[in-house]
Design brief:
globular; 24% strand; 14 strands; alpha+beta; four-stranded mixed β-sheet; L-amino peptidase D-ALA esterase/amidase; 7 helices
């Protein structure tokens, strides 16, 4: 976390220069916020590279830690091991609108999709922001999804912005967070790993920050962990789809370090990809790629756990409470931590 409590001796790996997922070269993130009388939601877009993803998909894998969710595109991703559209994050009832936006965008760039070539697999992941946002308003449109993609760049806000606008983490305001780590292998080669989370999970009474339990502020009614978290992992290391899937599974350890038991009604999904080993459509009968030595995976497992844990803390730290559609307001994690460490 930036500008927060002392975290020295907790992390073991250095961050990238930005300490966010855009430390992986070529990757971009964009947010689009929606605000209104009963609306507090949005869309966040992740572009794995600046080219045409349909023509140059990236190797990818998914780990469903708990499948209480309504995402689109995961089944084909797991089967083929690749991502062929931008990744969109949003609220549960906006998956359809965002899927349509991705399909239209892909057809605009590749008019033969669904006619002369294969169809396209839109990738949309969600969390339920219904505590703050009136999700029945169905506020997110295709235009909002396109706006998030058009806003993509290397500078993006965290906390209660974009898809994270109405999200709740461990009972506090905050949904979108990011962090990165740098991995240097024994032979001297260095690679980056970045994490971005849409965080909407956790039971307030179980939260641990750097191993220390943080009691809830005042007398509040604790509720079971029945939120969700979407974890996006990106690296520039030369991995195959199986290796990034192994990396995605390790993100569960970060949730445990923070105090989560991955609740019964929590939709916890980790998606990982590499910007290396891109192979265009078509081509010869065989293709040659470079693959990371399996014995070097432990360093990336450590980087995964650290980056995901810090990304969640950053989502909390940058969260700004917004009044919900029913007049309620989630507490501020930053204020709670200031009080906790002052006392």
């Amino acid at each position: 976390m930036r500008n927060t409590i002392d975290s020295k001796n907790w992390w073991t790996l250095p961050t990238g220069p930005r300490n966010d997922i855009c430390d992986v070269a070529g990757l971009r993130v964009g947010n689009h916020d929606l605000r209104g009388d009963v609306v507090c939601t949005g869309v966040t877009a992740i572009l794995p590279h600046e080219g045409d993803l349909f023509r140059q998909p990236v190797p990818a894998g998914v780990a469903v830690l708990n499948g209480f969710g309504k995402s689109a595109g995961l089944m084909q991703l797991a089967e083929l091991g690749q991502i062929e559209t931008p990744i969109l994050l949003t609220n549960t009832f906006a998956v359809g609108s965002c899927s349509n936006a991705l399909i239209r965008r892909a057809i605009s760039a590749n008019p033969a999709i669904g006619r002369g070539t294969s169809t396209v697999n839109p990738l949309v992941l969600e969390c339920n922001d219904g505590t703050v946002n009136d999700i029945q308003a169905l506020a997110v449109t295709e235009d909002h999804a396109q706006a998030a993609i058009d806003a993509c760049g290397c500078d993006f806000a965290q906390g209660t912005v974009g898809a994270g606008s109405g999200m709740k983490t461990f009972g506090y305001a905050g949904g979108l967070g990011s962090a990165s780590r740098r991995v240097v292998l024994p032979g001297g080669e260095g690679f980056g790993l970045g994490a971005l989370v849409l965080s909407n999970f956790g039971q307030q009474s179980t939260l641990r920050v750097f191993g220390q339990q943080v009691p809830p502020p005042g007398q509040v009614g604790d509720v079971p962990d029945k939120g969700s978290i979407i974890i996006i992992l990106a690296t520039d290391a030369p991995m195959d789809a199986r290796q990034v899937t192994r990396m995605a599974r390790r993100s569960a350890a970060a949730l445990g370090r923070l105090g989560s038991h991955i609740g019964h009604q929590s939709g916890d999904i980790a998606l990982a990809f590499t910007t290396s080993n891109r192979i265009g459509c078509g081509g010869p009968d065989t293709q040659t790629v470079t693959r990371l030595n399996e014995d070097r995976m432990d360093a990336f497992f450590t980087a995964t756990v650290e980056a995901v844990e810090e990304a969640i803390l950053n989502a909390l730290w940058h969260g700004v409470p917004h009044q919900g559609y029913d007049g309620s307001m989630l507490p501020s994690f930053r204020d709670r931590m200031t009080d906790f460490y002052r006392n």
